[in-house]
Design a protein that fits this description.
This protein has 254 residues and is an alpha+beta fold. The chain has four helices and 14 strands. Strand 3 and strand 4 form a beta hairpin. The longest helix is centred in the first third of the chain and has 19 residues.
Length: 254
């Protein structure tokens, strides 16, 4: 019996050693599968548990540095515990926990060009938006019937297409803030500057649904320009009777 136990123990130790030294390049396959080929991991170095590389958004080719440290032992109970970062000059600091019925994110900050996100989303997000999107997550705990979060989304120098082709509508700097605890959390959607005034509300549900409802109202001092903006808004929203147009968007965030 003792030889059999020794062989079994040796096999387990060998498997563990191979797992702990598995190359970081293996992550690319998983990221590729989860994103349907829209995100890849390039120039990966290190192991699955401690390494670095570059997230590449396709087809734009936008690159974002990624560093990670992962604790292998929570995998025994089916969870991933990682610390990640997006700054090569600073150690990973954002905490990420993923389990069968739980997502927990703490201290995450991320900034990307909006165009690269839109192009990576493909037909699911057919809007040719431009600007820069910055996400800050103080906390985000999601379970099947509960979401507890405090986060913000800042879209700077935002613009979207208008009619005639080639024209764009400047939205200024758009900000969304969400905070609360429950089955659904909500928060305001506002903007500063731009050719329209945005006043709305966004909602995030524990079930993985996202909803945004906002009223957009032209505020250009040029009458002809304001009328062209109103015509563009009328194509995507419903008039509110006060010179504005209400737009509703629904989607999934997980």
């Amino acid at each position: 019996m003792r030889p059999a136990l020794a062989v079994a123990a040796g096999a387990i130790l060998l498997a563990l050693a191979l797992l702990l030294t598995a190359p970081a390049t293996l992550l690319d396959r998983r990221i590729d599968a989860l994103s349907a080929g829209r995100v890849r991991l390039a120039n990966a170095t290190g192991t699955l548990w401690r390494g670095s590389g570059e997230l590449v958004l396709l087809p734009s080719g936008t690159r974002l540095p990624l560093l990670w440290r992962t604790d292998p032992w929570p995998l025994v109970r089916g969870e991933i515990h990682s610390t990640i970062g997006f700054d090569v000059d600073a150690p990973p600091s954002a905490v990420l926990v993923v389990g069968n019925d739980r997502l927990d994110v703490r201290g995450l900050e991320l900034s990307l060009p909006v165009e690269s996100i839109v192009r990576a989303a493909g037909p699911a997000l057919p809007l040719a938006a431009t600007g820069n999107l910055a996400l800050r997550v103080e906390r985000l705990l999601q379970q099947p019937d509960l979401i507890d979060a405090q986060l913000s989304l800042q879209w700077d120098d935002a613009s979207v297409p208008a009619l005639p082709p080639g024209e764009r509508i400047a939205l200024g700097d758009v900000r969304v803030e969400l905070a609360g605890r429950g089955a659904v959390i909500t928060g305001p959607v506002r903007n500063a500057g731009g050719e329209v005034e945005i006043n709305g509300q966004a909602g995030l549900a524990a079930a993985g649904k996202l909803q945004l409802t906002a009223t957009l109202r032209p505020r250009s001092s040029d009458r002809d320009r304001a009328e062209r903006i109103a015509s563009a808004l009328a194509a995507i929203g419903s008039p509110d009777g006060q010179g504005g147009y209400t737009v509703s968007l629904k989607g999934s965030w997980r």
